[in-house]
Amino acid sequence: MMIRLLALLLVLATPAKAEQIVLGLSRDRVAITATFEGSDILVFGAIKREAPIPSTGDLGVIVTVAGPDLPVTVRRKERRFGIWVNTDNVEVSAAPTFYAVASSGPMREVLRDVEDLRYRVTIPRAIRSVGAIVSDSPNFTEALIRIRAGQELYQVLEGSVDVEQETLFRTAITLPANLTEGDYVVRILLTRDGRVIDEYVATIPVQKVGLERWLYNLAHENAFLYGLMSLSIAIAAGWGASAAFSLLRR
Amino acid sequence: MLIYLPIAEVSVNAFLLLGLGGIVGVLSGMFGVGGGFLMTPLLFFIGIPPAVAVATEANQIVASSFSGVMAHFKRKTVDLKMGTVLLIGGLVGSALGILLFNYLRAMGQVDLLVKLCYVVFLGIIGGLMFFESLNAIRKSKKPGATATRRRHNWVHNLPFKMKFRVSGLYISVIPPILVGVLVGILAAIMGVGGGFIMVPAMIYLLGMPTKVVVGTSLFQIIFVTAFTTMLHATTNYTVDVVLAVLLLIGGVIGAQIGTRIGVKMKAEQLRILLAIMVLAVCGKLAFDLLVQPNELYSLGMEGHA
User: Fold this and answer.
1) Which residues from A are below 8 Å from B3, CB to CB?
2) Cβ separation of B298 and A74 shorter than 8 Å?
3) Which of B22, B26, B167, B290 satisfies CB 3.0 to 4.6 Å to B250 for a cystine?
């Protein structure tokens, strides 16, 4: 009896969210095949609510897709003795290998700074830098963002999330061909008046498949055999071309 | 058509790779060089991570050198004895070179030292070869000129002499072994076959006839680069076989074409062309070192190919 009362109390005590995200994804995994040229992920869904739409505050939807975090070193060149040499460097302890952030409107309007800090939404917040030995380490972080944005690995897609009647939302994220394997985290944030009111997280595994996976595994697990295989292919090709040409000459 | 490379973890245009392999293969067949000193920087340029580029290039050099050497075997322009002596030195040198490389890596700044090595060696050798072959061409155009071969220099007074029939030489084994060691060290550090040093060394230091130099050099390169490939594959896991296959399809075909072109040309013409090519690569590398780059910052991934 007491246990049932306790259980009932607990159920009543959990706050029911006013607005919740319901998510759909166009693909639940990305398979890197031999002719992989990149991939599009369509992120869509709805906002579930029991009460009518609140009249105060603007609704905002933010979609982020993040690849695995890996450490990276950013180096800068300077002129020493007439030649350009790598001098200073900054070790970034964890930077996402891919990061796309899409929002339903300008970031400043959709998300407050304090929430950005807490949820690490924008790209500079998603990068964690440690032990900056040089005085102008922000330059290094900027450089990292600039270089990766050039490779389409960091994308800022303001205004690319379509929201219909504060109920349905939809956006497309393009993954480039140069992807790092791992679990990619898709995160949807629902904001009202810049404050986050709901968060939903899904995972999309990105993996090499088929021949690519087999070769990768062989190279790491059975390296000696892999090396011999590469050499045999090389020698066979050399021999083959030589034989083919002599045949052609006759 | 884009192909995804499993070890490099980038996608590149397959036709671009075939074309690059072909061009470098032609040069390989013509001059007896592996082509690494040209191909490795080109691979960096199209976005392959440096560690993978160096290791995979070693594999590709095995293929085009093998293809080229077959054609030379048929013409009997390979001095097996000399080649074996050179490659013994080469294997020793390669092992030493890798030790040196790891030591330099622990100190940092390997990148810079490698580039400086390239500029210095390519510059010296390219320059020397250029002037020598220019003189040779001038002399051969004058009427009544005789080919100056086998000048007896200090090299010919060293002990441990052996007969090298195909080259028509009777010289000490010490110079070939030393040349082999030097080439092996440089090959391990720079990720090249070493032909651009070995070919001039064989011509000028050992006094071998140019016709035999190309085939013998290719023969030696095969073994040293095969050794390097195995070391890279087993210690760093950086050989990308898909990249290698794409490069070597173009490469082996190119090497066959290159050999046939090389046979039809005069020795001095071959040398001056090689000299010009070496100087051009040296110039480009020196230019990159001296001129302010567009992007001052670069990324290095720790523990990632």
Assistant:
1) 34-35
2) yes
3) B22
**CA A236 to CA A245: how far, in whole Å?**
14
* Listed range (A61-70, B125-134, B243-252) with the worst mean pLDDT: B125-134
- The partner residues of A203 in beta bridges, in order of sequence, read A185
Give the closest of B11, B109, B248 to A237, CB-based: B248
pLDDT greater than 80 at residue A135: no
> In whole angstroms, what is the distance from residue B192 CA to residue B266 CA?
26
Is the CB of B252 less than 8 angstroms away from the CB of A32? Answer: no
Strands (DSSP E) found in chain B? 2-5, 10-13, 161-164, 169-172, 297-301
**pLDDT of residue B282 exceeding 80:** yes
Judge whether A250 is closer than 8 Å to chain B, CB to CB. no
pTM: 0.75
Q: Which residue of A has its CA nearest to B231?
A: A227
Q: Does B37 score more than 80 pLDDT?
A: no
Kindly identify which residue of chain A lies nearest to residue B58, measuring between CA atoms: A231
Q: Kindly report the length of chain B.
A: 305
Kindly report the backbone phi and psi dihedral angles of residue A104, in degrees, each rounded to the nearest multiple of 5, phi listed first. -80, -10
pLDDT at A203: 93
DSSP one-letter string for A135-179: TTHHHHHHHHHHHHHHTTSEEEEET-SEEETTTEEEEEEEE-S--
Confidence category of residue A99, pLDDT binned at 50, 70, 90: very high
* ipTM for the predicted complex: 0.75
When scoring B235, B299, B302 by the number of chain A Cβ atoms within 10 A, the one with the most, hence best to mutate, is B299
Chain A hits for B299, Cβ within 8 Å: 72-75, 144, 147-148
Q: Read off φ and ψ for residue B197, nearest 5 degrees.
A: -95, -40
Q: Taking the alpha carbons of B46, B49, B50, B56 in that order, is the dihedral positive or negative? A: negative
Strands (E), B132-199: 161-164, 169-172
Chain B partners within 8 Å of A178 (Cβ)? 9-11, 47
The Cα–Cα gap between A230 and B192 comes to 17
Question: Which distant-in-sequence residues (6+ apart) come within 8 Å of B106 by Cβ?
Answer: none
CA distance A215 to chain B (A): 7
Tokens for A165? 């009647």
pLDDT, one tens digit per residue, over B59-72 is 888 888 888 788 78
- Determine the straight-line distance between the first and last CA of chain A, rounded to whole angstroms: 98
Cα Rg, chain B, nearest whole Å:
19
Considering only the beta carbons, identify the residue of B2, B232, B301 that sits closest to A177.
B2
**Residue A147 contacts B, CB cutoff 8 Å:** yes
* A139-172: burial string, b at 16+ Cβ within 10 Å, e else: bbbebbbebbeeeebbbeebebbebeeeeebbbb
Q: What is the DSSP letter of A71?
A: E
Rounded to an integer, the average pLDDT of B112-119 is 76
A-chain residues near B1 (CB < 8 A): 35
